């Protein structure tokens, strides 16, 4: 039984992930990076949640941890009522069919030694979707669904453009009939005109298949076009979350305001400038105490430097982590 439209399909609670690395010379020391720091969100069936933020803020790590491509340290990930992080054996295998990902770089996401028929056909055979000649028929149907000819099945990845390779990546994600797809910067490596085509394709697939998406991007324009809800991340934490129109039209957190001010505006007269404190962005290895954004925030108070603000609901479905709204 699957969650009906509007009901939570994916529920992520207090997800955390740290990495360790060696730094320094000639005697290296071990440092710890908290890439994801108690992140929580929900995604309804057929809905699209955008996760936005600067490079290195932990967006992709959230996706990989939810899919267990990278095992999280703590937290909970429940998909359609099933605990993803404790699932194993047949239950985990069943979850793999319903949770898929489209990677950022379509070139490195495909094996250059595999023909497209093999790249798409392998998961179909492994999960028993089709057998024998029916596998190729299923592959050709998937290619047609993403706007590629059946003849593409006989070719290798290097024979395609970047946009075509990303369509193949989308077809592979669709092969097992998923309910939710993590799209990790799926259009950032493509030309602007091709980006629009891929976004239209994803939108059509979402409507046709009632797919849910977690759409990861640093491009606010793309998120505004594709998503219904958005979560803003900064140094591993969600600092603001809510409906797309509300967040984009009236951002509350100073970091969200900065992202909006940094986004290109067609009319320069309507561009909004935001003054930041002097200095470099903090290192994720040693994030500042309290609110991680306070060294760059023009509204920072003494309290911001000592106490991390909790996420507070300022309106139904709208939450923000900022002492300005305590």
In total, the number of strands is: 12
SSE string: EEEHEEHEHHHHEHEHEEHHEE
Output the structural class.
alpha/beta
Give the strand line-up of the largest sheet.
Answer: 6-7-8-3-9-10-12-11
Question: What fraction, in percent, of the residue positions are helical?
Answer: 25-40%
Report on the architecture of this protein.
The chain is globular. It has helices spanning 59-66, 89-98, 106-109, 116-126, 133-145, 162-174, 192-209, 220-226, 244-249, 254-262; strands at residues 8-23, 29-44, 48-52, 74-79, 82-83, 99-102, 180-184, 212-217, 229-234, 237-243, 312-315, 318-320. The two termini are 41 Å apart. With 326 residues, it is of the alpha/beta class.
In short:
It is built from ten helices and twelve strands.
Write a concise keyword list for the protein shown above:
326 residues, alpha/beta, 8-stranded mixed beta sheet, 4-stranded antiparallel beta sheet, 10 helices, 25% strand
Task: Give the topology, please.
Layout: E1 8-23, E2 29-44, E3 48-52, H1 59-66, E4 74-79, E5 82-83, H2 89-98, E6 99-102, H3 106-109, H4 116-126, H5 133-145, H6 162-174, E7 180-184, H7 192-209, E8 212-217, H8 220-226, E9 229-234, E10 237-243, H9 244-249, H10 254-262, E11 312-315, E12 318-320
Helix pairs in contact: 4-5, 5-6, 6-7
């Amino acid at each position: 039984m699957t969650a009906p439209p509007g009901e939570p399909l994916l529920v992520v609670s207090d997800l955390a992930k740290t990495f360790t690395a060696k730094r320094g010379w000639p005697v290296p020391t071990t440092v710890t990076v908290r890439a994801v720091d108690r992140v929580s969100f929900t995604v309804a069936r057929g809905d699209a949640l955008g996760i936005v933020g600067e490079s290195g803020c932990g967006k992709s790590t959230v996706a990989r941890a939810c899919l267990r491509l990278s095992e999280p340290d703590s937290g909970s990930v429940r998909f359609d009522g099933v605990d993803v992080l404790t699932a194993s054996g047949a239950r985990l295998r069943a979850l793999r069919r319903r949770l898929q990902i489209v990677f950022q770089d379509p070139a490195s996401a495909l094996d250059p030694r595999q023909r497209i028929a093999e790249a798409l056909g392998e998961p179909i055979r492994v999960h028993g979707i089709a057998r024998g000649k029916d596998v190729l028929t299923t592959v050709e149907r998937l290619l047609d669904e993403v706007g590629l000819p059946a003849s593409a099945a006989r070719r290798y990845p290097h024979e395609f453009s970047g946009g075509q390779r990303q369509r193949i990546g989308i077809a592979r994600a669709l092969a097992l009939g998923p309910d939710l797809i993590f799209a990790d910067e799926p259009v950032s490596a493509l030309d602007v005109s091709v980006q629009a085509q891929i976004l239209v394709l994803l939108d059509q697939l979402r409507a046709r298949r009632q797919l849910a998406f977690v759409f990861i991007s640093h491009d606010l324009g793309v998120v505004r076009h594709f998503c219904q809800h958005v979560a803003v991340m900064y140094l591993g934490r969600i600092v603001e979350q809510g409906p797309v129109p509300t967040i984009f039209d009236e951002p509350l957190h100073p970091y969200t305001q900065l992202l909006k001010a940094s986004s290109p505006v067609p009319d320069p007269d309507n561009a909004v400038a935001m003054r930041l404190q002097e200095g470099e962005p903090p290192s994720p290895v040693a994030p500042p105490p309290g609110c991680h954004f306070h060294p760059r925030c023009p509204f920072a108070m003494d309290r911001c430097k000592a106490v991390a603000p909790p996420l507070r609901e300022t309106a139904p479905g709208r939450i923000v982590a900022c002492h300005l709204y305590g």
